[in-house]
Amino acid sequence: DTEVTQTPKHLVMGMTNKKSLKCEQHMGHRAMYWYKQKAKKPPELMFVYSYEKLSINESVPSRFSPECPNSSLLNLHLHALQPEDSALYLCASSPGGFPGGNYNEQFFGPGTRLTVL
Amino acid sequence: AQSVTQLDSQVPVFEEAPVELRCNYSSSVSVYLFWYVQYPNQGLQLLLKYLSGSTLVESINGFEAEFNKSQTSFHLRKPSVHISDTAEYFCAASDSGAGSYQLTFGKGTKLSVIP
User: How far away is chain B from the Cα of A79, in angstroms, using its nearest Cα?
Assistant: First the structure.
């Protein structure tokens, strides 16, 4: 299996809802990432997990809560989002963890298109 | 950390014509370079990468890019484009040191192939 999968593909939620995005990879990668991408912009890094531990939080609001239950799975829990949070949410993974591992390319999933009403 | 500049936000080109998408990076330290392609309503797909070795790298669908250290560039080229190449193209860079996680993206170039 050489791909990153994300579910759901599309999600519409109200500002009071709680929902979760799911990302899975079975390539044995040690690092996993969440990105947010607005229309016509490059992806912006949100969180990085390395060896199942949160390594990087790029000052993301607490209404976004990441979770890494195991080495293959990454979740993003959403609560009390704002309409400006509507975007494409991309998950990625890379073979090496850090510190210590060598950086390698990131493999991206297809994304979840989130709309907040 | 790197910074990446994609000089053209949009590039229209006729089908079967050649194309060059330009990318420059900032840092003088060792660097890894990538081109990603994003088709409408899809995620990013890795098109090609430079990690070390030969400065000319090729993809399976006819694209190539050349790492030019003196000009800090990694331009993407294709000798003859197809309608299906219409997409957004992102150049990205990372420091090559162990433990470097950050992938810095350019702002993207929208390639539009005209029939």
Answer: 24
